[in-house]
Design a protein that fits this description.
Chain lengths: 159, 451
């Protein structure tokens, strides 16, 4: 017990330092803002607001040619980092803004070895977007295909 | 590019088969671009608001790209699907400023294919946020179509309701009422629509009707194929072949405007008065055609005017071009077809040169990069010095010539009144041409008196 006292003290001290550090670290991981500007005109195109510690934006504002706020995306994600809810507000000339709120759910398909080969996104607006993942013979990701209706957007990964 | 051909042949083959199954050679649609296949270059990050294309570089396949991944030279799709290239990144406290430029299309898109199809723009394609103040979309109501005409003016032979042309007859019509007033004492650029100087007030009131625009076309990007040829006596050599692409499009529209322009102004302006816009895009938002509908009024002089116009024009333009790698247009051909009917009752005092009429501006883009642009429109032009007032309507029809009463004019000075049509077509910022630029003067007078 006598030996454990200084050990306990050190543990408490370490936790205090860690928590203090976390707090000060927290101030560094405050909400961040990324502004996208057009170099030639200096015009602000969009701004992305990121919650502390997040990799994906909580809010995107896009601007028109007159630097007026055109559209705002408020975005929420599920535990897997996938878009779960969006509120898109579009500003309209001399009229109240248009707002569209959409929620998203997903279903995944995996192959026999457990690799993700397809994700289907269903929106509350009744739309479905399928995403397919391809792998090469060595199991490395080969490409991604987005099928939306009858149109495709795809990308090949570097080998 | 090469990687697709060498290592990813099977994967690409599956995709092409998938595309071929779902993409008939010719498909009709109602205002949505169908069956588009777009292959992004592998460096492009998907930063759309609802992303689907995830990257593999340094990430697991389940991760989305983040704006934090951007570095100088990065290419990405922004929230609205526009492709941008990062040229500088600066930090300022908690804010990061990312300077961008618009990249060359070949940096973003490796392949793009849009099968031949017909897109009929309807009222459903109108972008709600594009409807301007003073503009009201009126649902198509057959039988009430002529209600907006300036009664005594619309006495010519063919109007939008009665045209027998196949692209107009039976086609529904988008009708908008316009009631806009500009009161200004400004010079320079204002509201993003006006360039020049204006003092006074300008009012435009009337009705614009557009027979649903029809766009027909197809696109195939040119490609380069690299194949490694091995022979027993040498380690091998690359065999390079090029595949020619194409872009062809035709754009037909008919519009009728019945309006009154009034005001007392001193001006030297060109006003583009946006009314609304129509958008058809593929579901990903990467490939889109946007039609902006606007009035273009150019005026120079000092004038008190009361200018009633009733104008109908049907314009069709077409263009075809082969594309060689990377995106060079060759074997260009283009043309136009048109019909017009103008009626006008002008009243001016002062001196003035004036053009006014409705226009449709078409822009086709891939990831925000323009591949096709066109502007078609026309209206009435006048050149007046002195005073002129018509008691009755005068008009001009392409097929029957002048019509209406030419009997009662009061004038002093000289004047010329006519109609005009203009059409331009451009491809990928590398080629453009004026397909049509015609004027038909139907009144030229000089002197003083009544007639």
């Amino acid at each position: 017990m006598k030996r454990s006292t200084p050990v306990l003290f050190l543990i408490v001290l370490a936790m205090t330092i860690f928590l203090t550090g976390s707090c000060s670290l927290g101030s560094h991981t405050a909400a961040r803002k990324f502004s996208i500007v057009d170099r030639s005109s200096g015009r602000l195109l969009a701004s992305y607001a990121m919650a502390p510690g997040a990799r994906l934006p909580a809010r995107i504002d896009s601007y028109d040619a007159d630097q007026k706020l055109l559209r705002t995306y408020e975005l929420e994600y599920d535990g897997g980092g996938r878009l779960s809810r969006s509120i898109v507000t579009t500003n309209v000339v001399s009229r109240p803004p248009l707002t569209a709120e959409t929620s998203y759910t997903y279903s995944d398909v995996r192959d026999a070895s457990g690799r993700l080969i397809q994700t289907d996104q269903y929106s509350s607006a009744g739309e479905k977007v399928e995403t397919f993942y391809g792998y090469d013979e060595t199991g490395q990701p080969r490409g991604v295909v987005e099928r939306n209706g009858r149109s495709l957007v795809l990308k090949d990964f570097p080998q | 590019m090469t990687r697709w051909r060498l290592g990813g042949a099977r994967f690409l083959g599956i995709i092409i088969c998938l595309s071929a199954i779902t993409a008939p050679a010719f498909s009709g649609s109602k205002g949505i671009v169908q069956d588009v296949t777009i292959v992004l270059e592998d460096r492009v990050l998907d930063l759309r608001a609802n992303p689907h294309i995830r990257g593999s570089s340094g990430m697991g396949i389940g991760d989305y790209a983040s704006i934090e991944d951007l570095e100088v030279g990065s290419l990405f799709l922004s929230a609205d699907g526009t492709a941008l290239k990062v040229v500088a990144i600066k930090k300022s406290g908690e804010e990061t400023i990312i300077e961008t430029v618009q990249p060359d299309i070949r940096e973003v898109i490796a392949e793009c294919y849009m099968p031949d199809q017909e897109i009929r723009f309807t009222v459903d394609n109108i972008l709600p946020e594009s409807i301007q103040d003073g503009v009201v979309i009126i649902p198509d109501a057959p039988g009430a179509q002529s209600a907006g005409r300036l009664g005594s003016l619309a006495q010519g032979p063919t109007w939008i309701d009665t045209d027998t042309n196949e692209n107009v007859q039976g086609n529904s019509v988008i009708t908008v009422s316009v009631d806009k007033t500009f009161s200004m004492e400004k010079s320079g650029t204002a509201f993003g629509i006006l360039t020049g100087t204006i003092e006074g007030e300008l009012g435009i009131k009337g009705q614009l009707r557009i027979s649903n625009p029809i766009l027909k076309g197809g696109l195939k990007m040119p490609a380069i194929h690299v194949r490694w040829v091995t022979v027993w006596w040498y380690i091998g050599y690359p065999a390079v072949s090029f595949e020619t692409g194409y872009l062809h499009a035709s754009f037909d529209s008919a519009e009728q405007i019945d309006c009154k322009i009034t005001g007392t102004v001193t001006l030297g302006i060109e006003v583009k008065i946006p009314l609304y816009a129509l958008l058809a895009s593929d579901p990903s938002g990467t490939f889109s055609f946007l039609i902006g509908v606007y009035l273009k009024v150019s005026m120079e002089g000092s004038v008190t005017l009361g200018f009633e116009i009733c104008e109908y024009a049907r314009l069709g333009i077409w263009g075809s071009v082969d594309l060689v790698w990377p995106f060079i247009p060759v074997d260009l051909s283009a043309g136009s077809d048109f019909y017009y009917n103008f009626a006008v009752r002008p009243s001016f005092e002062g001196w003035e040169e004036n053009k006014a009429g409705p226009y449709l501006g078409l822009e086709g883009t891939i990831a925000g990069t323009t591949i096709l642009s066109a502007e078609i429109g026309g209206g009435i032009y006048t050149r007046v010095e002195g005073y002129i007032e018509a008691a009755d309507v005068i008009g001009l029809d392409k097929n029957v010539g002048g019509y209406g009463s030419w009997a009662h004019w009061t004038y002093s000075g000289k004047a010329e009144v006519g109609g005009y049509l203009e059409a331009t077509l451009g491809i990928a910022d590398v080629w453009s041409t004026t397909l049509l630029d015609k004027r038909w003067p139907f009144l030229q007078i000089e002197g003083e008196g009544e007639f």
